[in-house]
């Protein structure tokens, strides 16, 4: 069963729909053909039985006088003249002896009682019996209330078989024509339903991988069209932001190089330009949330069946759109955090919170990151950890989850460890993985904005290059420190240390 399931899942949505509809068409066609043949067979059988009963009545009237006089020659002549329908006729006298048999030459006048004749005489009514040889119709012959004999007619099935064969042939031809027309309709329906969703999914994947030149255009239902337009609008805005950012960075970099050589005034001008860039990023990133929210909303409506039911494959394709949109949302959030940190307008809000809540949040959210590549998340808590901590819970969770996400991203089917302990009133957090590791020469630059280990890693693992930079800035804003140890093909360990105690009478402290 599992190999069949794997083969089925490897097929495209269009192929699955086509196979499903064709199988259903074959089943429907076979059922209709069977029912048609069954009805025709029943009709022919009923017609033959009705004809047999009529002939019994006709022969009853035709031979009653000759049977009463036991004129077997006259009886046989009468039966022989009407032998085009039945294959054999037998007549019995009042005692059950066979006196006429059209299947035998000459005159038959048995001196012994035939049990078949006795059975017919005892029924006192017409009777129809089917056997492999055909249909036998029997009837006692009476005059007044006296039984003077019986007649038995045998009807062969050859004529009935030929009629059934002709019916089967005509029904099969009609069924084949119906199946061919239905198959064409099925292929058209499968193409109409699957193609827009597949096209939209491919476009969303390309955008998530950084291909912002991918044109997005699909034709389908109004909801899919709306989703296509929104996704294309988001692509154009992100592309514009990237192009503007690259151009602005290049221009300002040249200005900075010249300004550093000229005077402190040029340096101040460069700083103002950088501030303008940061403000620009923040504003554009904020504007991106609207189309992203629309795309996410439409995709979730499709997945939840609010605009019509979806099969499993369509739900999976819609889920990929949601995942890609969530990735872009996280990218926008990272850009916003980076711009706020770079401009010095990022505030920390510290207040007491329960450590168990922090641990539960890390476990539930971190598991989601770890499972994406088949990893296991293990949290280890030292006995020295207090039940209540004072600090910015949200930003502490952000630091840990960024490190967990980064570890899970570069680890395949391994383990990610998160360890908590306190050392001299400092909170120490370690995030360790069993992944691919970081080259020694790259360990000093991984905390720089927009930096990745290399182009290949950037291609194979999604990310903006801002995660570790934001972690370092948040840790330093908390008066803490972050360090990294890593070996290639063995794993990496990030250690975060910062004070977690503040004056007991402080209800809320703002660090800026």
Structure write-up:
The chain is an alpha+beta fold and 512 residues long. The protein has three domains: 116 residues, Beta-Lactamase (2-Layer Sandwich), CATH 3.30.450.20; 138 residues, Topoisomerase I, Chain A, domain 4; 164 residues, Histidine kinase-like ATPase, C-terminal domain (Heat Shock Protein 90). Helices cover 58% and strands 17% of the residues. The protein contains twelve helices and 13 strands. The strands form three sheets. The chain has a five-stranded antiparallel sheet, sandwiched between helices. A hairpin with a 2-residue loop joins strand 3 and strand 4. It is rod-shaped and about 145 Å long. The two termini are 61 Å apart. The C terminus is likely disordered.
Helix run count: 12
How many discrete structural domains? 3
Beta fraction of the residues?
15-25%
Q: How many beta-strand elements?
A: 13
Give the fraction of residues assigned to helices. 55-70%
Distance between the termini: 61 Å
Strand order of the largest sheet: 2-1-5-4-3
CATH topology of the largest domain: Heat Shock Protein 90
Low-confidence stretches: 505-512
Sequence of secondary-structure elements: HHHEEHEEEHHHHEHEEHEEHHEEE
Describe the sheet with the most strands.
Answer: 5 strands, antiparallel
What would you call the structural class? Answer: alpha+beta
What would CATH call the class of the largest domain?
Answer: Alpha Beta
Q: If classified by CATH, what would the architecture of the largest domain be?
A: 2-Layer Sandwich
| 3D shape | rod-shaped
Q: How big is the Rg?
A: 45 Å
Mean pLDDT value: 78
What name goes with the CATH superfamily of the largest domain? Answer: Histidine kinase-like ATPase, C-terminal domain
């Amino acid at each position: 069963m599992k190999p069949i399931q794997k083969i089925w899942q490897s097929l495209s949505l269009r192929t699955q729909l086509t196979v499903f509809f064709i199988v259903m068409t074959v089943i429907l066609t076979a059922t209709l053909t069977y029912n048609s043949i069954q009805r025709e067979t029943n009709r022919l059988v009923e017609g033959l039985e009705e004809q047999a009963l009529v002939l019994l009545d006709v022969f009853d009237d035709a031979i009653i006088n000759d049977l009463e006089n036991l004129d077997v020659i006259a009886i046989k002549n009468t039966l022989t003249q009407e032998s085009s329908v039945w294959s054999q006729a037998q007549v019995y006298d009042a005692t059950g002896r066979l006196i006429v048999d059209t299947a035998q030459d000459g005159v038959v006048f048995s001196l012994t009682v035939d049990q078949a004749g006795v059975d017919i005489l005892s029924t006192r009514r017409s009777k129809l019996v089917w056997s492999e040889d055909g249909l036998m119709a029997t009837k006692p012959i009476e005059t007044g209330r006296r039984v003077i004999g019986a007649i038995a007619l045998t009807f062969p099935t050859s004529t009935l078989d030929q009629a059934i064969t002709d019916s089967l042939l005509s029904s099969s031809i009609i069924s084949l024509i119906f199946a061919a027309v239905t198959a064409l309709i099925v292929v058209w329906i499968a193409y109409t339903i699957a193609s827009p969703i597949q096209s939209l999914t491919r476009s969303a994947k390309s955008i998530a991988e950084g291909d912002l030149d991918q044109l997005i255009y699909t034709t389908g239902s109004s909801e899919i069209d709306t989703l296509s337009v929104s996704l294309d609008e988001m692509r154009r805005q992100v592309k514009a932001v990237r192009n503007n950012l690259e151009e602005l960075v290049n221009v300002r970099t040249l200005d900075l190089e010249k300004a550093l050589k000229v005077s402190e005034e040029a340096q101040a001008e460069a700083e103002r330009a950088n501030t303008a860039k940061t403000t620009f990023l923040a504003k554009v990133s904020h504007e991106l949330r609207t189309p992203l929210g629309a795309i996410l909303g439409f995709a979730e409506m499709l997945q939840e069946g609010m605009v019509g039911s979806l099969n499993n494959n369509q739900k999976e394709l819609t889920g990929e759109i949601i995942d890609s949109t969530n990735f872009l949302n996280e990218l926008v959030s990272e850009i916003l955090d980076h711009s706020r940190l770079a401009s010095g307008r990022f505030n920390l809000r510290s207040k007491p919170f329960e450590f168990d809540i922090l641990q539960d949040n890390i476990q539930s959210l971190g598991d989601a990151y770890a499972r994406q590549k088949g990893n296991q998340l293990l949290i280890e808590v030292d006995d020295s950890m207090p039940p209540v901590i004072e600090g910015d819970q949200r930003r502490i969770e952000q630091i840990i989850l960024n490190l967990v996400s980064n570890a899970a991203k570069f680890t395949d089917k391994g383990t990610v460890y998160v360890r908590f302990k306190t050392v001299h009133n400092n909170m120490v957090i370690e995030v360790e993985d069993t992944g691919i590791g970081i080259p020694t020469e790259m360990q000093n630059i991984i905390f720089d904005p927009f930096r990745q280990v290399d182009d290949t890693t950037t291609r194979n693992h999604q990310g903006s290059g801002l995660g570790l930079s934001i972690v370092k800035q948040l840790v330093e804003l908390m008066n803490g420190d972050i360090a990294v140890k890593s070996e290639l093909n063995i794993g990496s360990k990030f250690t975060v240390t910062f004070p977690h105690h503040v004056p007991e009478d402080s209800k809320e402290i703002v660090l800026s």
